[in-house]
Design brief:
This protein is an alpha/beta fold. The protein has seven helices and four strands.
């Protein structure tokens, strides 16, 4: 899957500097998620609920981003809890695996609260990187350094 054509404008471009600064904590989770994914493999699949991956994903992963998938029919976190949403998440992860991803980074903190890793575990052996846990690991590293 070619990801160059799917880029969204950065939040800084869309919202302006002040809004970008206010939302930067969300990017900390995604950055940490990318960093954790790269400890497993340099072939990363990303699953999120937006039509395009956040710009920070492209900035962090560059050519290591194998593919990005939005689960079919999942456009908000509420849809993650439905049976159709859960099936679509499994399908998206398996599509990433089929396209060569060796690790999956979640680009949605809502997927952390729905425990996507446990949901997809019976269907794949790929590591699934939870963005909230990845942020916690990064904070712990900072505090211990």
């Amino acid at each position: 899957m070619r990801t160059e054509n799917l880029r969204m404008p950065s939040l800084e471009q869309t919202l302006g500097y002040d809004s970008y600064s206010a939302l930067s904590h969300a990017f900390t989770r995604i950055m940490s998620c990318c960093e954790q994914a790269l400890t497993f493999s340099h072939s990363v699949g990303v699953v999120g609920i937006e039509p395009c991956a956040p710009e920070i994903i492209y900035e962090m992963l560059h050519d290591k981003l194998r593919t990005y998938r939005q689960p079919n029919g999942v456009n908000c976190t509420h849809e993650l809890h439905t049976e159709a949403g859960k099936a679509a998440i499994i399908e998206a992860v398996l599509a990433c695996e089929k396209e060569g991803a060796k690790v999956i980074a979640l680009a949605c903190t809502g997927m952390a609260t729905t425990d996507v890793a446990a949901l997809v575990a019976p269907h794949t052996t790929l590591p699934i990187i939870n963005p909230v846990l990845a942020a916690g690991i990064s904070v712990r590293k900072l505090l211990n350094s």
